[in-house]
Specification:
The complex is a heterodimer of chains A (256) and B (160). Chain A has 13 helices and two strands; from the N terminus they run E-E-H-H-H-H-H-H-H-H-H-H-H-H-H. Chain A has helices at 14-17, 20-26, 37-50, 61-69, 85-100, 102-106, 112-122, 128-133, 137-141, 146-153, 182-195, 206-215, 220-229, and strands at 3-4, 9-10. A two-stranded antiparallel ribbon of chain A has the order 1-2. In chain A, a hairpin with a 4-residue loop joins strand 1 and strand 2 (9-10). Chain A is an all-alpha fold and 256 residues long. In chain A, helix 7 runs parallel beside helix 10, helix 11 (182-195) packs across helix 12 and helix 12 (206-215) crosses helix 13 (220-229). By secondary structure, chain B is mainly alpha-helical. Chain B has eight helices and no strands. In chain B, helix 1 packs parallel to helix 3 and helix 2 (21-35) packs across helix 3 (43-67). The chains are: A mainly alpha (256), B mainly alpha (160).
Chain lengths: 256, 160
């Protein structure tokens, strides 16, 4: 009996069709059988996919470093810019906020999402009321502040598509603040990954090596205990990323 | 360090889905950097997170370009040097990364996505299944079919 769903033929003999060895060979988990040409080809194929990055693939390193050093820096450009109406609109919004809203943001006079956007883009100091509340009212209530993160973190996207996995942009706590510092903001995520109880970070992993760079002469554990012990804008526990949850945004509309 | 570790596979993965992979990769990194402070999870979750963002960005870009098709004019990138030995030899002995990525891109979309996420992004089946909205068994089958097709194409001299 063969059942059909929207995309995939569900065959009771499905398991028979799948040979895990082929995947293991391609992934480099098991060596190929020299007598099996298919395995030899797929092993070569897997090796080709896993070669270290070439210089051309790392061309955007300087920009990424700039963004990492200061996510609030709005001057970060894409490697090969592609103009989109929504990007222009978002850039216009950002410009308006940056040019005319800094003072208002500093005074805490903007609506909350714009307030956070302003803090994110212009680095305006947090208003006293929000500082006093710590995480902010919407965090206290447990209601996701949908517009806060996405509009602030991804002004050019005009959509929540940037964070479909863990929906991180929906959490206002992720926006960098002048007090926390952009590097501290980044270090926070890295340290959480390092300290995550559900997984062990390989000492040679990218996260570990990044933290080593950030920690300098300090041990990573010491550094992270300091980072994680630092008061952060939000104490709200965030959920683990769920790559399958969330759908891509709808295409930008001309009016966006 | 993060960039050096993840940018190459991210770019390769995005190249299987879009012709504007560099743009999408840049946007992905901006999103990652902006939201890194809110990330919670371990190493594998971090990897899945980055690729999920990139994947959804690519889907968005695909929808956008589908609405506004653009005819690209320029030189076609050759996967293999015409002056090189037989393509089959090249495929076996000197299979370049770009050629391997192009081979994946030439697969049916679902197979390409499954193979790319498994072997470029280095994600496990369960994670890929979540990202694709499929069952793990379906992902295994898609991957297997993709690999069989790739093996056949590599064996037939890189019919790409």
């Amino acid at each position: 009996v063969v059942r059909y769903d929207a995309h995939v033929v569900v065959d009771p003999n499905e398991a028979n069709e799948f040979d895990s060895r082929l995947s293991d060979v391609a992934a480099g988990i098991v060596p190929p059988d020299p007598a099996n040409l298919d395995e030899m080809r797929l092993a070569a194929f897997g090796v080709a996919l896993r070669v270290p990055g070439r210089q051309s693939e790392l061309a955007g390193l300087a920009e990424a470093r700039r963004a990492f050093d200061g996510p609030a820096a709005s001057g970060v450009t894409r490697a090969r810019g592609r103009r989109r109406p929504v990007a222009a609109a978002a850039a216009g919004l950002a410009a308006v906020v940056m040019l005319s809203g800094v003072a208002a943001a500093a005074a805490g006079q903007l609506p909350t999402p714009l307030q956070r956007l302003a803090h994110s883009l212009a680095g305006a100091p947090k208003p006293a009321s929000e500082n006093a509340n710590g995480a902010g009212a919407d965090v206290e209530s447990g209601t996701p502040s949908e517009s806060a993160g996405s509009s602030g973190a991804h002004p050019e996207s005009g959509s929540p598509a940037a964070s479909p996995a863990g929906k991180p942009s929906g959490h206002p706590s992720q926006l960098p603040t002048p007090s926390a510092g952009s590097v501290g903001n980044s270090a926070l995520g890295l340290c959480r990954a390092w300290e995550a109880p559900q997984g062990n970070v390989n000492p040679n992993s990218a996260i570990a090596r990044s933290l080593k760079v950030l920690a300098g002469s300090l041990a990573i554990r010491t550094y992270c205990s300091g980072v994680l012990g630092t008061p952060v804008p939000s104490a709200r526990p965030t959920t683990l990323p769920h790559p399958g949850i969330g759908k891509p945004s709808t295409p930008p509309t001309p009016g966006a | 360090v993060l960039y050096k570790a993840f940018q190459p596979p991210l770019l390769r993965y995005l190249h299987t889905r879009s012709t504007t992979s560099e743009d999408i990769a840049s946007e992905t990194w901006l999103a990652v950097i902006s939201d890194l402070g809110g990330f919670v999870g371990d190493e594998s979750a971090f990897r899945a997170w980055i690729f999920a963002i990139g994947r959804h960005r690519a889907i968005d870009a695909g929808r956008y370009s589908a609405r506004r098709p653009v005819t690209l004019v320029g030189e076609k990138t050759e996967l293999f040097d015409e002056s090189s030995p037989a393509a089959s030899d090249a495929a076996l002995e000197h299979l370049g990364t770009a050629a391997a990525v192009e081979l994946i891109a030439a697969l049916p979309p679902d197979q390409a996505d499954a193979v790319a996420l498994r072997f470029i992004a280095d994600l496990d089946v369960a994670t890929v299944a979540k990202m694709m909205g499929r069952r793990p068994g379906a992902v295994r089958v898609l991957t297997h079919r993709g690999l069989r097709t790739l093996a056949d194409r590599l064996g037939s001299g890189g019919e790409m």
